[in-house]
Write a structure and sequence with these properties.
Helix 2 (18-31) packs across helix 3, helix 2 (18-31) crosses helix 4 and helix 6 (135-145) packs across helix 7. The protein has one domain (4-268): Rossmann fold, CATH 3.40.50. The protein has helices at 4-14, 18-31, 33-46, 64-72, 85-97, 135-145, 184-194, 207-226, 230-253, and strands spanning 54-58, 77-82, 104-108, 120-126, 146-157, 197-204, 262-268. It is an alpha/beta fold and 271 residues long.
């Protein structure tokens, strides 16, 4: 299934006014379990960063993580990078309308070839690496782009059912993915080969998270792809399932998982 067209439709609906855009971000932070895990990691890592940290949001998409970081960590200087020029223009217009243009700025960049030396204290990369074939080149670029003691946070599907692939005969739920997911050892070895140390990889989307993902994301996307009329029913659907989704997301966030369909990766560049 091609996921980008659905995302673009949703983006257009909420992009008519900055307040609607912010509402969209809030809804994404509630619905997307990965956002719960990423924000928890960022809050923890922020204690070890300088107040005016230089941050790269690598593959910012809608820009929700850049907006969240700029709202919460008001002295951070954030660069939001994306390969799509329309996403860059759209995000810059929103950041300007929100009065954040001095602290967060979007640029067009191909993460495979873009390689600014020693600049960032933190690099965030959410749901990007599963779209890039040349992942080792991106990891090397991340390492080169960091200051010493810089931190890297990655959220990506795992090889234990990521992209909703559970056997060799399954097709990825997201047609834009070039890989179904990473194994813990696989992504650890690639990051260490790029130069990173202290690589910590944990599973996300365990049993409760996988159920929440189906209720909050998979089933609505399937229905939206079948008929755009489902946009009318979507608010009522979420009113029904949201209490259960919140409980499942909270549970997934606060327990450790022996396996899961997602990975949260934290790595360091040591002097």
């Amino acid at each position: 299934m091609q996921y980008d067209p659905i995302k673009e439709i949703l983006g257009r609906q909420f992009n008519r006014h900055p307040l609607l855009r912010k509402l969209f971000y809030i809804l994404l932070n509630i619905l997307l379990l990965r956002s719960w895990h990423v924000r928890k990691a960022l809050r923890r890592i922020s204690r070890s960063l300088t107040p005016s940290a230089s941050v790269l949001d690598a593959g910012m998409g809608f820009g929700q993580y850049s907006w969240w970081m700029a709202s919460r960590f008001t002295k951070w200087n954030i660069t939001a990078a994306d390969i799509k020029s329309e996403q860059v223009d759209d995000c810059n217009a929103f950041f300007s309308a929100s009065g954040m243009e001095k602290r967060v700025h979007a640029i067009e960049a191909d993460l495979v070839t873009w390689n600014p030396p020693g600049k960032y204290d933190l690099i965030l990369c959410v749901d990007v690496m599963e779209h890039i074939e040349e992942d080792s080149a991106v990891f090397a670029s991340f390492f080169n782009s960091m200051n010493n003691a810089g931190k890297l946070v990655i959220s990506t599907p795992s090889d234990m059912g990521g992209s909703d692939v559970h056997s060799d005969s399954d097709e990825s739920f997201i047609g834009e993915h070039v890989r179904d997911g990473y194994g813990k050892e696989d992504i650890t070895n690639k990051l260490m080969k790029a130069g990173f140390k202290n690589v910590y990889v944990s599973y996300t989307y365990g049993v409760p998270g996988s159920i929440a993902w189906r209720l909050s994301m998979k089933y609505p996307v399937i229905m939206l792809s079948a008929s755009k009329l489902f946009f009318i029913l979507l608010p009522f659907y979420y009113i029904i399932v949201m209490p259960l989704v919140l409980v499942l997301n909270f549970t997934d966030l606060n327990i450790s998982h022996r396996r899961g369909t997602g990975l949260l990766v934290i790595a360091e560049k040591t002097p």
